[in-house]
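Possible regression after last week's pipeline update?

I re-ran a chain I had predicted before the update to compare outputs. Posting the input and the new output here so someone can diff against the archived version. Not blocking, just want to make sure nothing changed silently.
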Amino acid sequence: MRALAAGGFLLALALFVALALLARRPGSRIPPLGVVCGCLMRYDVGPVPVGRIGLLGFWWWVGWHFLAR
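New output (post-update):
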């Protein structure tokens, strides 16, 4: 079961790298990760920076599930 989980994470990492490489090709319609994060950071609903709060929550979740041991 552990090997299956590790294989799933490696597959997700390989897909992420492939998508990042496809986004960096000249003329690609896929935005790079920096552009997506920049757009997310500018997203506000009234005076509340919803994008920044969401990104902070995502990083908290990643740290809690993968780094807290």
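Follow-up from reviewer: compared with the archived run. The mean pLDDT is 92. Marking as no regression found.
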